Each structure stands twice: as C-alpha cells, then as structure tokens.
Amino acid sequence: MQFHKAGGPEVLQYHEVPVPEIGPGEVLVRVHAAGINPPDWYLREGLKVMPAEMRPALEFPLIPGTDMSGVVKAVARDVQGFAVGDEVFGMLRFPGFDGRTYAEYVAAPASDLAHKPAGIDHVQAAGAPMAVLTAWQYLIELGHDVPSPFTGQVHQPVPITPGMTVLVNGAAGGVGHFAVQLAKSKGAHVIAVASGRHEQFLRKLGADEFIDYTSTQAADVVSGVDLVIDTVGGPDSSRFLTALKRGGTMLPVFFAQYDPEETASLGITVSNIQVRSNGPQLAEIARLLHEGRLHVGVDSTYPLPEAGSAHMRAAQGHLQGKIVLTMIS
Known about the structure:
The structure is a single chain. By secondary structure, the chain is an alpha/beta fold. The chain is 23% helix and 23% strand. The protein has helices at 38-44, 122-127, 129-139, 174-185, 199-204, 218-221, 260-266, 279-290, 307-316, and strands at 26-35, 67-75, 87-91, 105-109, 113-115, 165-169, 189-194, 209-212, 225-230, 244-252, 269-270, 298-303, 322-326. The strands form two sheets. Strands 1, 2, 3, 4, 5, 12 and 13 form a seven-stranded mixed beta sheet that branches. The two termini are 16 Å apart. One of its GO terms (molecular function) is oxidoreductase activity. This is NADP-dependent oxidoreductase.
C-alpha cells in the first residue's frame, strides 16, 4: 500500500512494486501481518499534527507502517542472531517514516527485531510493537538517553512498586491496555478509564477499578494517585492533575500542554517520551507474551488492500486493542 499525495484514507493505493533489497545489518521479511498506529495516519495526512517548522519534506510515493510480524527470507552477511525461516516481529526505523511495513516484503534492520513468541500468532505479534514499546519505555525502561523532543528532558521511568495506585486514561486502546497490564504486573492498584463497553476487557487484563468516562469524570471521584498515564492527551489532559497526590507523576502519551507553574505548585512531575525501535526490549517483552503474562488485544483485522478501510476504523476511535492488516497468502 502506498500513497502519492497526502490526504484521507482514499489516497492509499494497492500496487505491485519490486521486492526490496537488503543492505548491511538487514534481513528480508515476508510480512504476514502489519499493525496500524497513529504515526501511519499522521504520515498519510502530511504530518499536519506537527508544527510546520518541524515537518520533514516528504518524497512520494510513500509506503506507511512501522509494525510487522513475519518470516525471515534472507539475511545480510553481517547479521547474527537471525536465520532464514525465523519468525520475527518488530517496529522498524522509528522515530522516522521509513518502516514500510504495509507490504508483503520488507527490508528490516535486525536491531529492530525480536523472535516472535511461539505462543501468539502473527496478527497478535504485529499489533504489539509500537504500543507495547511505548508503555514499556514509559514505565519500565527507557532504553536510551535521547531527550524527549517535546520537553527536552530525558525521561526517567517511575519505579512501580506494590501498593502504588496507577490511573490509565484511554485504557482500552493500544498503549493503554499494555500500560494496565505492565502496571498490574508490578503490583500496582490499577484504575482504568474508558467507555463502559470496555469494562470486562480491562478487568480481564487486571484492572482493579473501572471508571466509565461517559458517565463519571475520573477527577471527581479519584484522588491520591501516584501515577497517571494519559494516552488520550489533548487540551483536557490537565483535569487529571487533581487526581494525583503531591509528588505524583503525569505521563501524557499524546500531545498535551501543562502549565509549569501549576504542576510545580502541586509538586507534580510531567514527563514524556518519543518511542524508539528496540529489538532487545522486544525480546524481553516476547517472553512475557509467550508465557501469557502479557496479552495483545486485537480490535479488528483487514486485508492489506483494504488499508483505507482500516484507517477509517481508526478514525472512529474507541478501539479495543489494535487494528492489524493481514497479507495476501
């Protein structure tokens, strides 16, 4: 799937193109499934979400996508740890827009890959990388020392210990449902905020409390929280500040602005990251997925030629897990 100009889902077109050649440090992967993430539609729309001065020049045609799961078909001479026939998954070349995973074949940096867990299928594996790495790098281990482009500071994950209270807003979505599970795995008391139809899904993932935001404002009924993970962001994100205890931490996953004087007066730290590709972290996560200690929610699947319809589903919001493209066999 590629597009020749920025626009709506209708600009995505299905084409036959040559199988990519691999370079040093790369493997060729026959893609079985590709996960859909917000940067995919940001790119399709021409990166309008970014300030004009920060937008890179785009050279068309472009193949979107960062997340995929598939089987290795060729390996560069300098690559170790992967062989033809291995099942792998990964988030490719992010931050950046050269992942090109909406395709049947992709040239993938070996450093961005991990072996796919045997306990899950390609659809589940393809749905995991960006969302789970975002939650992991926020909560468990950043894995690099690159300052956030949004704050200029290097994020320091807050150690989650038994007895802490963690609130996850937008808990049913990609990042949210992994954040719920990771916080719970560390012994936290987890409050999940989402619409009512997601309650059973989130309770099965370990949420201790559930708040239906369509009928109850979390900030009206919750206080003394140690950590808020807000996967929704936007101008209303600051309403969660009153739910935090003094000394608490706010982690906005999407764009959100906070008044430094207000957060300082409340003793609250605001921190965020830009997720980065990391094969070794995915290998750690793969063990949790294989052992059933971490689960991938799949909202829906679409055949690759119907990527436009998949983007339309994403625009509707209220996802329960991830949207995944499946390749033609």
